[in-house]
Amino acid sequence: MQGENPRDAVHEDLYRGAVQVPASATPVMDADEEVFLLYTNLAARQTADGSSSFRGLGHIDSHKDMLTISLKIEGPSRGQSEDEGGIPVVHKSHASRRPRRKVQGRKHDVSETLEVEIFQDKTALRSRKGDTGSVVWHASVDFAEVILQQLRNRSPHGFFTPEGLAQAHVVELGAGTGLLGVLLSPFVHQYTITDIEDLVPLIRKNVTRNLPIPLTSPPEPKHSPPKSPIPNVVTMALDWIQLHNAPASLRPRLVPSDPADILLVVDCIYHPSLLPAMLTTIDYLAVPDKTAVVVVVELRAEDVIREFLQGWLDKSSSQGEWEIWSVGELLEGPYAVWVGWKTALSQSERQQ
Q1: CA–CA distance, 154 with 173 (Å, rounded to integer)
Q2: pTM for the model
Q3: Domain ranges of the chain
Q4: Is 50 left (phi over 0), alpha (psi -120 to 50) or beta?
Q5: Helix (H) or strand (E) holding 138
Q6: How far apart are CA 140 and CA 180, in angstroms?
Q7: Which helix or strand (DSSP H or E) is residue 145 part of?
Q8: What are 198-248's pLDDT values in tens digits?
Q9: How far is CA 64 from CA 199, 294, 329, 332, 337, in A?
Q10: Checking DSSP bridges between strand 190-195 and strand 233-237, what pairing results, if any?
Q11: Which CATH class is domain 154-213+226-344?
Q12: How many angstroms separate the CA atoms of 181 and 228, rounded?
């Protein structure tokens, strides 16, 4: 219908690689409109539940060297054994530091608590300029809890398709402590955890503590990025600013060698000076018609969110046309979730 707002169009679930964009998602066509709707809805929710408009920056507890993160996973388990449902069964022992699972409740109404122990670097948060990744943030925990619950319950409308996830190479930008890699890597084919060089040792420490260590590991080729002891997990430094400033001929050396099926960016939008480099990195790593980009952000400064979205929309070029979807119902709380997909242009479209 002429004059119809594309945001109001009804569609079925869309598949973008391993990501299932729900029918309730809306296309982002205008950054100003998206930001207005996000913050209007946020204010309405806060008024309805009486919550405060500000809960701090969003980290969980920056005063501890180690946090025990507990995720409550609820859902029916009719006829399921404890080895089913997607979440790895790990029995508590003094020799194991892998994620612990507690099962409680009646036979047909089971809730599970998954616990991981995550090291933080509280000193770096205060002493290293621009360091925000050395502590755990609410967005990562809340996102992981929703995804794990969907995987456990085998939700037909889950955000990730289990089959697609099992074959996917996930690259996470700005991974911080590596919490999401610890929790999600058992469900994927390969998980590459990246952040600045200073945070790589902390990520490796958390991966080694929480994931099972194989008896042997293959030798690493010279000049390859250092791997963690876990077969399907790689940790490497990826500096957005370095990539942004690098000539095209050098950029392949600064990023994972295998293309990403899913590019995960969780709560990395906070400082406007980093936005151009972040967007360059997203655009460079996104392979047209292959890579689904998932961005999760806690809603803080409106102007920063607007600048990010406008910059992302403006990235469409001869290399591909970006479509961005706002997934408003995935997470409760002060969050926005977007799925980006770059569509390759035909030769005739490039010449126009």
Answers
A1: 27
A2: 0.83
A3: 154-213+226-344
A4: left
A5: helix 138-153
A6: 7
A7: helix 138-153
A8: 999 999 999 999 987 443 333 454 455 555 556 799 999 999 999 999 999
A9: 17, 29, 32, 26, 29
A10: parallel
A11: alpha beta
A12: 11
